[in-house]
Amino acid sequence: MFKELNPLLHSELRLGIMSILISVEEADFVYIREKTGATAGNISVQIEKLSEAGYIEINKGFLGKRTRTVCKITQKGVNAFEEYVEALKSYLNVKGR
Fold it and tell me: Residues in domain Winged helix DNA-binding (predicted)?
């Protein structure tokens, strides 16, 4: 039986952002942009959606005179990511291999 895939995480860019954040303590906007290759505008929209869902925390501050946006995955985000991976495995039938 297939488990439902979380539509919020099924987006390629949002899944990429979550994959980055699950493997690091936190990541700034520039790092996420470099790793995903997405435009700044698209990343802004997607991290806002993830933040609204409670999957990530966004902290804005300054590094010198430059603004700095730092993202960190929440426990809710970790749980959602792990559930997504488990649901994906049900489609891939990984258990039998």
Answer: 13-92
Measured distance CA(17)–CA(36) in Å, rounded? 7
Beta strands at 56-63 and 27-28: parallel, antiparallel or unpaired: unpaired
- Architecture label for domain 12-88: Orthogonal Bundle (1.10)
25 phi and psi angles, rounded to 5 deg: -70, -40
Instruction: Please state, in angstroms and rounded to a whole number, the distance separating the CA atoms of residues 52 and 44.
Output: 12
Contacts 24+ apart (CB under 8 A), 23-26: 25/72, 26/70, 26/71, 26/72
For residue 29, the one-letter residue type is F
Q: What does the pLDDT look like over 50-81, one tens digit per residue?
A: 999 999 999 999 988 999 999 999 999 999 99
Strand (E) positions, the chain? 27-28, 56-63, 66-73
**CA pair distance 95, 87, nearest whole angstrom:** 12
